[in-house]
Queue: 4 jobs
Job 1
Amino acid sequence: MVSRENKRAAVHEKLQLLRSITNSHALSETSIIVDASKYIEELKHKVERLNEDIAIATNSSHQNSWPVQITVKTLEKGFLVNLYSEKSCPGLLVYILEAFEEIGLNVLEARVSCADSFQLEAVGGENEENIGEIIDAKVVQQAVSKAIKNWTESNEED
């Protein structure tokens, strides 16, 4: 009899522990187990989402083996483009200038460093020939991102 009571007490204690871990407010044993089952399913879904996020982050880091930070700010007349990479990027400047030209952005002022890292700070203004077309910061950001992608792809071929 004592062992039966000890077993019941142990089961009750474990159910209470399970109830607290799963944040269940249930009182009956069955409801506690059902809540625990739902909690485990939620955890499984979280793990799946995290694994997907990790896979996406891993794939994007493989595609772009050195991260480039790009910021584009709208100025009164034009844009301020800042670009930074920890690694040197020979030839990237040409791709970026070609991208500016494609969208009709004139470089009014620029500072570039290509020694151990790549840094570009450029002030661009809209080309007067493109008066009807609207260029916003998002268009400039996309053009620079595309130039970086094209540069990366051309360097992978080498």
Job 2
Amino acid sequence: MNAGVQRMVALAGSWFPLRPAMKVNGPGFPLASLYVGDLHPDVTEAMLYKKFSPAGPILSIRVCRDVVTHRSLGYAYINFQQPADAERVLDTMNFEMIKGQPIRIMWSHRDPGLRKSGVGNIFIKNLEESIDNKALYDTFSTFGNILSCKVMSDDHGSQGFGFVHFETLEAAQKAISTMNGMLLNDRKVFVDHFKSRRKREAELGARAVEFTNIYVKNLQVDVDEQDLEELFSHFGKILSLKVMRDNSGHSRGFGFVNFEKHEEAQKAVMDMNGKEVQGRRLYVGRAQKRVERQQELRRRFQQMKQERLKHYQGVNLYVKNLDDSIDNEKLRKEFSPYGAITSAKVMTEGGHSKGFGFVCFSSPEEATKAVTEMNGYVLGTKPLYVALAQRKEERKAILSNRFMQQRLLRCLQLPTSYFLSQPPAQAVYYSSGPPAQPALRWMTTQPLRSSFNVGTQNTGPSGARRCAPGRPLLTQRYTSGMLSTHEIRLA
């Protein structure tokens, strides 16, 4: 990194000098704009500039960050001046290592319709653990131009499946017809068109209506396949059955029975579920895949959560700034004059109070009265803070909104004297320069006049804008959601 870049980084902190991105017409996306994903959390704009600037002139670099914490979200956008430079980076630098982590480069798609449509997107599962993004890309690139390629992974490594998004539907169909059922690193892979979660759930629901395979659990350990067949054979023709066993051959207490017809399986579930066999009450139901079971459990959990929230809506109070001497009984006693309390709990850790707790009343009117009377009341040696309890998501949204409003107000209320009171220093100027080689230059600034207005441009002999002493010209832009972009424009 040259001295000019180091100086800019020192002045700007985590921000990097950017120039307005060039709009390049192309089939659905700017041809000179690249998306760089799978970034290490510590990767900055300066690191990316040092990595990619040898490929050609760069117009702008932005690492996307959380709007509150300003931590990297793991991806960035790089705009090159020439489309040929961006294409060369995509072909030669994809999956290279930055801070010990392989990066993933693809064209930047400004229109989300292409991604959400699923056209040309295929799903590959049963991948061997050694197959990474690069190996998957090299394997499927022979079938057509790839827009995106990713093997899903967690902290333990590959999860055994991934996605490849082709530019055309024809390339995706060719890849499916060629690779489905083929051996990839001695493991047969399954390749098919990508289906959204909603579509998969609809298909699972349709298959569930006409099930023939049933699941039987809570079996005695001495029950084998012959005993299982005797229990269920009178319901209809059995195509297959199995008692599941561990590595030592002992029964795991459950098994499966597959009937020829749906009516036979349904009758077996209705008659045998809950029936006592050898002193144990059996559970008999439709056999489900892991995905179905997880979806059902998730649905039940969400339903219970909604019911619990509805039950405590407007009656559960959050009490903080509690004295260390306050326990559950004292908390209940202090709030009991305002109504019937269903629960009162002081949150503890290691047997010591964490300084807050919850009090739940039987009606919203009682809870409202308790908030009015007890908020600010001195209990022990501390004044209480009492309010209606909120979910974590609600608190986070309120705090984020409050933070943004306060920050905006501070920016609007800063007087001109604030900028003029900064210690004198030199500001950095990023010139347009020749197209083939952007130049970094120094520009000595002069004190601004007292009639300085925010948003005006002071131009010198060269026509360039001048910054206030010691401060580069800052522009901050906020986007909706959880992303924020920060730019220093020195042009």
Job 3
Amino acid sequence: MEHHLLCTFSSLLLLFLFSSIPVTSQFTFGSSSKQAHNYANVSCIENERQALLQFKHGLIDESNRLSSWIGESCCSWEGISCHKTTGSILKLDLHNTVPLYSDDDDFLCKNCLGGQLSPSLVHLTNLRYLDLSSNNFSGIQVPAFLGLLKNLRYLNLSSTGFDGEIPRHLGNLSHLRYLDLGNFVFSSIQNSLSTKDLGWVAGLSSLEGLVLSRVNLTAAQDGLQSVNMLPSLTTLDLNGCDLFIHPHLSHVNFTSLAFLDLGENNFNNYMVPLWLRNLTSLHDLRLGVNNLSDPIHGLFDQITSLVHLDLSLNRFDISTLKSLCNASSLTYLDLSFNNVQGSIPSEINQLLKLTNLLLSFNKLNGTIPTNLGQLT
């Protein structure tokens, strides 16, 4: 048992150090609009200023991060961006910039915002961007009133300590392009969210990025069927959701996916689902810790854009490694903690673009092929 836990932690640490790709970096919502900026000389809309003050009143701010929230010019306040001509608030970015894996928990907690989220936010009728990530709203539920912010394009509530059922009202955000309700792997503050079905996701018709990592989806039997109704999706992170992955999808709609993380889930027959071959735009695929086994031969032949493949902590054997030697676009391949026995195949030299090759904790033997040195 201790060995298994050590193996799992080692793999996750490798994943964090070498393959962690911030999903948010793929989206350019920094201003949410070309006209959203922090303007000191833009007139502030009074009812929106009052809404912000009510919002501030409900918060716990031990580090006094919102000390600038005084006076009449709310467009110059910390975390606020406005339209340059109308003064309407377009962006509210209050994410915590202190790393959540910090060892200094006292400092971390003091820098977090907490308390309650006031429904006064609904008065920010033109709000495009809301980021409250990496704070500590410990034990409260995701407010249903967020579903009234109809103009939202970006919503990030990751690692904020939210608890309970995800409100279906979020499905009303039809203009939303990015939604993150997940958790950072090594965060000391975690959401504890769940949902009994993902039907509400289908209402997010403009969605490009969906992160639900470590949200409890055990009861969501319709999981991928609902997400599959989002044709514009390019990023999907369902890591550690205990989601039941049915091997068959009658038709694959989310063929624009470039990033897909289905690690630590429940694959019905422990085989890699064949519908993955239809995701020909994939750059990054993560299927670690799923007890998956062979065969996958030829499965990735059509995915010529695939550069990052994580198959760690499964039951793949040497035949899988040999078949992956044909995936010449790969730069990162993780087959650690599998059942790869025998010699490293000489065909490994076909992976000329590789920058990371992880084969630890297998049953390899024999001589290391000299052509491994060709992987410059």
Job 4
Amino acid sequence: MSGSALSPWASVRDPSGHAFDVATQLDCPVPNDLFSHYEKLLQCLRKRINLMFLKVHLKTSKFQLAVGPSIDGVTIKPDWKNHQSKMGKEGRTPVDLLLGMTAANLLDILSQQEVQEGFDADYREVLLRSFAVSNYRYNLQEIMLAITAEYTDWSRSLHRPISIRDSTGQGLHDANIVSPITDIAKQLCTTSRSSYLYVLEEEVSDSGNESLLLNELVYVFGGPLGALVDITLSKSFISMWSNFIKLG
């Protein structure tokens, strides 16, 4: 739902760096070789209370996570993408598949102010540069130019903040969610089982009677508590997801 293991945000790039930051902020000893001698660090961290962890600040770019899975060579191997691709080719995933996404949700990418007011071309360049640096090593300028050219609506004013917001948000949504979902669907779909792809474009109403696009997880977990249609849709999601898990 709304992404896959192929999403650029699905794994942590520098877990040892974040471990060092946590240890430093909680005044715990950091071994020279964090991978081989982490016992003392673990013992120290386990003595800290929960509230202390909540105050830890981990620095990441706008398009990366600080906490999540990492390619550690043990649980997740460096060549995990090859193994995943083979699963589909060799028919080693016999269960039916349900994959999908929401329509572009700018609130997942941009701040509330950026969503409301839009932004200019200079800030778009800052966003795209941050995305490129976070996910690519080479040809960054060419990648930025390609994204800008692909996601510029030439039929609208090129200088309108709202127009720039919409096209930039769509590009980032495609890169972070749509493309990873599409790629994994191509890898895992076979003729030996059924596969389904959905796109959710529904908006839910908050307490202020304003419409917000939300991740489908909110519906699956019964989150909407506003208008009757939101509750009905949420119940439908729960029923469909449950039946799919039980029956395919």
